[in-house]
Automatic annotation (TrEMBL):
<dbReference type="InterPro" id="IPR006269">
    <property type="entry name" value="KDO8P_synthase"/>
</dbReference>
<comment type="pathway">
    <text>Bacterial outer membrane biogenesis; lipopolysaccharide biosynthesis.</text>
</comment>
<dbReference type="InterPro" id="IPR006218">
    <property type="entry name" value="DAHP1/KDSA"/>
</dbReference>
<dbReference type="GO" id="GO:0008676">
    <property type="term" value="F:3-deoxy-8-phosphooctulonate synthase activity"/>
</dbReference>
<dbReference type="Pfam" id="PF00793">
    <property type="entry name" value="DAHP_synth_1"/>
</dbReference>
<dbReference type="InterPro" id="IPR013785">
    <property type="entry name" value="Aldolase_TIM"/>
</dbReference>
<keyword id="KW-0963">Cytoplasm</keyword>
<keyword id="KW-0808">Transferase</keyword>
<feature type="domain" description="DAHP synthetase I/KDSA">
    <location>
        <begin position="12"/>
        <end position="263"/>
    </location>
</feature>
<protein>
    <recommendedName>
        <fullName>3-deoxy-8-phosphooctulonate synthase</fullName>
        <ecNumber>2.5.1.55</ecNumber>
    </recommendedName>
</protein>
<comment type="similarity">
    <text>Belongs to the KdsA family.</text>
</comment>
<comment type="pathway">
    <text>Carbohydrate biosynthesis; 3-deoxy-D-manno-octulosonate biosynthesis; 3-deoxy-D-manno-octulosonate from D-ribulose 5-phosphate: step 2/3.</text>
</comment>
Length: 271
C-alpha cells in the first residue's frame, strides 16, 4: 500500500503505518532525540514509520505564536533525520511556492486541513511527484474528499493519502465520525490523526487546548475500524513544546500505546 515510499520499512508486517514526531521542528537535538526513540519502538513492533515535523507553522492563533526556526534550517534538520535513521519524512506546506522547496528535503508533502480546498496548493504538491497527504477539512464531509484526491490524480500523481483530523463540533471541540473511514478508504489510503482530533481550538487565550487523556481511546477506535495509518504528535516535554503541546502524546507513553494498538490490529486481522 505504501511500499512505493522511499526508505519505508516493515511493510510486510500487515500493521498500520505511523506518521509521528513533534508538531514543529524546534531544533536539531530535539528532532533527532524524538526520531531515535520512535524508530527504536517502531522497529521493535514492526510498524512502517514516517517521521513528521512541520518546518514552519503558518496557521497560528496569535501573532506572537511560534512559527519556526527558519525554513531552510528546519528542512535541513528533516533531511538529517532521514539520513541518520534511514526513514522517510513528512512536512506540511502552506503556499504553492513551498511545494518545490520542501520536496527537495522530504518524501511526503502534507496539505493542512484548512487549505485542502486550495487547488493551486494541492496541484503544486502533486506536481512535485511526492506523496501528497491530504488532511480532511474540519468543515468537510468524508465524501467531499474525493475531489481533493482527484486534483492530485489529475495533476499526474497517483500517490495520495487522506488524513481525518476530526470535524468541528461547536466552536471549541472536535469529533471523529468513524463512519467516514470506510468511505475515504475507497478513495485512498486513510490515516487517522489522533492527536489533532483531540484539539480544543478557539480558546479565548489564543492557545489551542486539548484532551491527551483520550489519545488511546481514539487510536483504538481507529485501529478497530481498519484505518491504514495513524498520525500522532509526540514530544519528550509536551508542556514546553512550542506548538500543540496541549494535545501531544508524551514520548514516554508511546511504546505502551503502540504495543496495545498492534495487538488490536493483529486481532482485527484475524477476524
Amino acid at each position: 500500500m505504501i511500499d512505493y515510499l522511499p526508505k519505508i520499512k516493515n511493510v510486510d508486517a500487515n500493521n498500520f503505518f505511523l506518521l509521528c514526531g513533534p508538531c514543529a521542528i524546534e531544533g536539531e537535538e530535539m528532532a533527532l532525540r524524538i526520531a531515535e526513540r520512535v524508530v527504536e519502538i517502531t522497529d521493535k513492533l514492526h510498524i512502517p514509520y514516517v517521521f513528521k515535523g512541520s518546518f514552519k507553522k503558518a496557521n497560528r492563533s496569535r501573532i506572537d505564536s511560534f512559527t519556526g526556526i527558519g525554513d531552510e534550517k528546519a528542512l535541513k534538520i528533516l533531511r538529517k533525520v532521514s539520513e541518520t535513521f534511514d526513514v522517510p519524512t513528512i512536512t506540511d506546506i502552506h503556499e504553492a511556492s513551498d511545494a518545490a522547496m520542501a520536496a527537495a528535503y522530504v518524501d511526503v508533502l502534507q496539505i493542512p486541513a484548512f487549505l485542502v480546498r486550495q487547488t493551486d496548493l494541492v496541484v503544486a504538491a502533486a506536481e512535485t511527484g511526492k506523496v501528497v497527504n491530504l488532511k480532511k477539512g474540519q468543515f468537510m464531509s468524508p465524501e467531499a474528499m474525493k475531489h481533493a484526491v482527484q486534483k492530485v490524480k489529475d495533476a499526474g500523481n497517483q500517490n495520495a493519502w487522506i488524513t481525518d483530523r476530526g470535524t468541528m463540533f461547536g466552536y471549541q471541540d472536535m469529533i471523529v465520525d468513524f463512519r467516514g473511514i470506510p468511505t475515504m478508504r475507497k478513495m485512498a489510503p486513510t490515516v487517522l490523526d489522533v492527536t489533532h482530533s483531540l484539539q480544543q481550538p478557539n480558546q479565548n487565550v489564543g492557545v489551542t487546548g486539548g484532551r491527551p487523556d483520550m489519545i488511546e481511546t481514539i487510536a483504538r477506535a481507529g485501529v478497530v475500524n481498519k484505518v491504514d495509518g495513524l498520525f500522532m504528535e509526540t514530544h519528550f516535554d509536551p508542556a514546553n513544546a512550542k506548538s500543540d503541546g496541549a494535545n501531544m502524546l508524551h514520548l514516554d507513553n508511546l511504546e505502551a500505546l503502540l504495543s496495545n494498538l498492534v495487538a488490536i490490529r493483529q486481532t482485527v486481522n484475524s477476524l
